[in-house]
């Protein structure tokens, strides 16, 4: 496993397992932040219309000198753009802001009640029109996925959920694995909420890695796609220096036992507006 390690999604598309998120990266910092990440070797960038920074992401990609085929770009449809036609228009606006001909993954950002099955039909059209290589969802719990399954024609390729050692969402992860849906971890470091946990500090010292590096490695060894975010250049580099060690099974089990349902973001049944 190394920086170029990819996971094959259920439609055959390859996604780099370690990506780079830009949630809450200010628009004026996005170009420099993404440009540096690409320079370091990140090839998977995750943004969203709601983040307000698609323009900076797109410019950094276009000016990077890296061929488009080497890059994996994700964006998402926001809650006030649900519905078939609204979603199609939202996608066109995202594509224009990014300045790209296609995206690699387009996601429903949150499962807005009663609307997301219709929104999914729009994503299926975009997929069949070849303007996105894969489609998926974000913040869907297993019960949302089961509702979607009743009317979907295309199985989601990805479910991007809040996931870290203290919030492991096992019911949703198990369902995704049964259905061949890749699990992608957002807020994989829980916004640094518990990087000082004694177990993480102890294990980090054992492996000569920081607690953040240790948690990212935990995600990778669980076969999750993981998208840590940092505007700090040194941390960007540290977050990708996670392919030169393995966590043994005993220590993986210790980390798995940290689960306590601790959310740092919104609950998917309480949709943010």
Automatic annotation (TrEMBL):
Entry annotation: catalytic residues: 51
Question: What superkingdom does the record give?
Answer: Bacteria
> One Pfam family for this entry, by name?
Aldo_ket_red
The annotated site for Lowers pKa of active site Tyr falls at: 76
Domain NADP-dependent oxidoreductase: start-end pairs: 24-259
Q: Which molecular function terms from Gene Ontology are attached?
A: oxidoreductase activity, acting on the CH-OH group of donors, NAD or NADP as acceptor
Alphabetized InterPro entries for the sequence: AKR, Aldo/ket_reductase_CS, NAD(P)_OxRdtase_dom_sf, NADP_OxRdtase_dom
Residue positions annotated to bind substrate are 109
User: Which keywords fit this entry according to its UniProt record?
Assistant: NADP, Oxidoreductase
Coiled coil feature spans: none
Question: Which family, according to UniProt?
Answer: Belongs to the aldo/keto reductase family.
| Entry protein name | Glyoxal reductase
List the taxonomic lineage.
Bacteria, Bacillati, Bacillota, Bacilli, Bacillales
């Amino acid at each position: 496993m190394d920086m170029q390690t990819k996971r094959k999604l259920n439609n055959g598309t390859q996604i780099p397992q370690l990506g780079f998120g830009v949630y809450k990266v200010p628009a004026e910092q996005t170009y420099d932040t993404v440009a540096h990440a690409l320079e370091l070797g990140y090839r998977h960038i995750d943004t969203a219309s709601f983040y307000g920074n698609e323009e900076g992401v797109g410019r950094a990609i276009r000016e990077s000198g890296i061929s488009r085929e080497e890059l994996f770009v994700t964006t998402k449809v926001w809650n006030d753009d649900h519905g078939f036609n609204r979603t199609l228009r939202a996608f066109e606006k995202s594509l224009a802001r990014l300045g790209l001909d296609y995206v690699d993954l387009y996601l429903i950002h949150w499962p807005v009640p009663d609307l997301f099955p219709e929104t999914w039909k729009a994503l299926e059209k975009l997929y069949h029109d070849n303007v996105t290589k894969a489609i998926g969802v974000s913040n869907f719990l297993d019960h949302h996925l089961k509702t979607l399954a009743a009317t979907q024609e295309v199985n989601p390729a990805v479910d991007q959920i809040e996931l870290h050692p203290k919030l492991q969402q096992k019911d949703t992860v198990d369902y995704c694995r049964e259905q061949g849906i890749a699990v992608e971890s957002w807020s994989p470091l829980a916004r640094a909420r518990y990087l000082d946990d004694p177990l993480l500090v102890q294990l980090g010292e054992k492996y000569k890695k920081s607690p953040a590096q240790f948690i990212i490695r935990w995600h990778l060894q669980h076969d999750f796609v993981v998208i840590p975010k940092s505007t700090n250049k040194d941390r960007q580099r540290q977050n990708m220096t996670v392919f030169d060690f393995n966590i043994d099974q005993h220590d993986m089990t210790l980390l798995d036992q940290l689960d306590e349902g601790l959310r740092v973001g919104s609950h998917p049944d309480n949709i943010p507006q």
